[in-house]
Structures are given as C-alpha cells and as structure tokens.
Design brief:
Order of helices and strands: HEEEEEEEEEEEEH
Helix content: under 10%
Shape: globular
Radius of gyration: 15 Å
Distance between the termini: 24 Å
Structural class: mainly beta
Number of domains: 1
Largest sheet: 8 strands, antiparallel
Length: 183
C-alpha cells in the first residue's frame, strides 16, 4: 500500500455513485483505522467509506459488492460556502476495498489509497485533482470510460457533472478494469 502526500478516497462511494459515509463527519472508532493525526487538533477528521452493491449490468455484467477492508482515510476541510456547506476538501489515507463478484465469489482487493483535492460546487457537480489510485464506478453512458468499475491511478483530474457524468482526464496514469479481474 502506498502513502501519498495529499489525500486517498473514502469518497470511493461518491465515485461509484452511491451515498458516501462521508456525507456527515464520522467519529473515529474501532475498525475505522484512524491516523495519528485524528483528534490532535490538526483539522483532519475520519472519512470512512460505505459498502456498496450494484446489480448485474449496472457496473459489471454480474452483481458486485464492495466493502472496505482497510479504511484509514481522513479529510481536511479547506473552504466552506457562506451557508457552512463544504466547498473544498483534501482527502488522504490508506483505503483498500474488496470488490466481489457476488455470483461466483471471485474478489479483488483494490488499493484506492490515492489522494485528492475535491471541490464541491453549488450545482451538485464536483471537480477532483487526484494523485494515486482511486476506485471509480461508471454507469452506462455516464462517463468517458465505458460502464464498469476501475482503479484509476496516476495524476489526473475528474469532473463529475450534476447529472453524475464522470470525465476522467489522465495527465499520466492507467485504468484497471476490475470487472475483467473478477468476471
């Protein structure tokens, strides 16, 4: 597992298109794999990832389940809007998500320990400046990648439209098709 300077993504759930556990700040606790920074007054708070499930045809040709097996992601809010809602956040920490083909039991432990600066826009869209591996789910016709689950790794940006369309723009990097790995 690699450690990066900026931030990995408990926001895998956002990228997969499910409700993230980071929608509200969570308390550190057993199993959250908290960092030493948490609770020291540094402004870093736990940002746990939620498990997810997709039926056959939604991301892969078969049903999939994802569950964090290592989740030490923390977030640092940099800016808020006048109403107090989050505008810009840094994410970092170790994250490994077990992605399972629930039809066969085949699984792959995906390292999603990348880092990101995420801007949440008032229209519901998002902009990500990322480094390192992040788990990204794309629905049919909802991205510049084909429908699937991917580990995107490298240096890249990603725009997520208010309609959920994901445009991944690799500066330098790779995409790893997890549906092919566990299919």
């Amino acid at each position: 597992m690699r450690r990066t300077v900026l931030a990995p993504l408990a926001l895998a759930a956002v990228l997969l298109g499910v409700q993230p556990a980071t929608a509200a700040p969570a308390s550190a606790g057993p199993g959250n794999g908290t960092h030493a920074e948490v609770g020291t007054g540094t402004g870093w708070d736990p940002a746990p990832s939620a498990p997810f499930d997709f039926g056959a045809g939604l991301r892969c040709d078969f049903p999939v389940h994802g569950e964090p097996v290592v989740d030490r992601v923390v977030q640092h809010v940099l800016d808020t809007y006048p109403d107090g809602s989050v505008k810009r956040v840094l994410y970092k920490g170790d994250l490994v998500i077990r992605v399972t083909n629930t039809g066969t039991g085949a699984f792959y432990d995906a390292d999603a320990s990348g880092s990101a600066l995420v801007e949440y826009r008032t229209d519901g869209s998002q902009f990500w400046a990322a480094h390192g591996p992040v788990l990204v789910g794309v629905g049919e016709g909802k991205g510049n990648l084909p429908r699937g689950l991917y580990v995107v790794d490298g240096v890249y940006t990603m725009s997520i439209g208010a309609d959920g369309y994901k445009a991944v723009n690799l500066v330098r990097g790779t995409t790893d098709d997890l549906c092919a790995r566990i299919g």
